[in-house]
C-alpha cells in the first residue's frame, strides 16, 4: 500500500506528541517506520505466545532488513497476564536485555500486551520509550493510543498503572484477518463506543457499514482511522482524564465490574464487557428520563446485528448479585468522594458524566438485563 493510502493521525501532546499510522502491510515496513524513533538500532519486543506465532518473525525480519537487532519475550496470551507476576517477568527480562534509558520497547499484541508493556516501559529505569504495534481491533482503535498503561488487581481492572504515551503506533489493519471472529467482534464494542459517546453520524455509518468491517479493508481502515482521530482529539484536550476524557469510559463502569466478577476469564472479553456496558448505560439513561427509549433500542439492535453480547444474560455461567456488582463498581477510577460516576447519554452521540445516578434505577436496569 502506498503512503497516500496510509492514514496518519497525529496526537499533538507537545514533547510527548506522536503519530498513529494506520494502513495495510505496516509490519513488513516496520523497520523503516520505527528507525526514526530509535537512538540505536536495537529494540526489545514484548508479545504474547499467540501473536508471536503469527507475526513475530515477520516483524523481526522487517527490523533486520533495516539493520535493527531485536530480542523478544512472549508471555501467555489472555487478560490474566495483565498482573504483577508477568509485569515482574517482563521488567526483569528487559533489565537482563540491558535495555537502556534511550532504548525503545516494542509492544506487539493486543490490549493486554500493550498495557503491560507500556507500564513496564513507564517504570523501567524510571521511564523508557515504547512503540505500540497493536494486533487486535480493540488495541488499534483504543488501548494503543492515549498512554493509559497498567495491570489489573483482583479488586478491579487497570487499578495499577501510569500515564505513559507511546512514541509511535503502527496499526497494520491486515493483521486483523488473523483474529478469531469472537476477538474481532469484541474490539467492535470500542468502535461503536465512539459513535455512541460523541458522533451520531459515525454511529449511523456503523449501522450501515459495521457488518463489512470484517471483510472490507477500506471500511476497516476508515473505521479505525475515525476512531483513533476521535480518541486523539479527546486525549489532546484532556491527557490525564481531568474531565472530558472520562467520556471514553462509556460502558466501562459496568464492563469493568463484569470483568472482575468473571475473574478476567474467557467468559467475558474486555470489549464484550464494554458492549454490554454501553447497552446498560443507555438503558440507565432512558430509565432516568435522560434520553428517549429509541436510543437504547438502537444500541441493542446494532450490537445484536453485529453478533455482540448486550445483556447480562449473554454472559455464560452465574454472575454475582446486584449488591456485589455495585460494590465492584465502587473501585471504578471515576469515583469521587466514594460516589459512583457513570457516563450517561442524552441521545446517541451525546454522552456526559454524571454522579447523580439513582440506585433504584441502576438496580432495575441490572435486573432487566439478567432476563
Ligand atoms: O483511554 C481512555 O481514557 C479510556 O477510558 C479508554 C478505555 O476504553 C480503556 O479501556 C481504558 O484503559 C480504561 O481506562 P480505565 O482508567 O477506566 O481503566
TrEMBL record:
Binds 1 divalent metal cation per subunit. Can use either Co(2+) or Zn(2+). Pathway: Metabolic intermediate biosynthesis; chorismate biosynthesis; chorismate from D-erythrose 4-phosphate and phosphoenolpyruvate: step 2/7. One of its GO terms (molecular function) is metal ion binding. It catalyses: 7-phospho-2-dehydro-3-deoxy-D-arabino-heptonate = 3-dehydroquinate + phosphate. Residues 187-335 form the 3-dehydroquinate synthase C-terminal domain. Zn(2+) binds at residues 190, 252, 270. Its cofactor is NAD(+); Co(2+); Zn(2+). Pfam families: DHQ_synthase, DHQS_C. It is an enzyme of class 4 (lyase). Catalyzes the conversion of 3-deoxy-D-arabino-heptulosonate 7-phosphate (DAHP) to dehydroquinate (DHQ). This is 3-dehydroquinate synthase. It comes from Paracoccus tegillarcae.
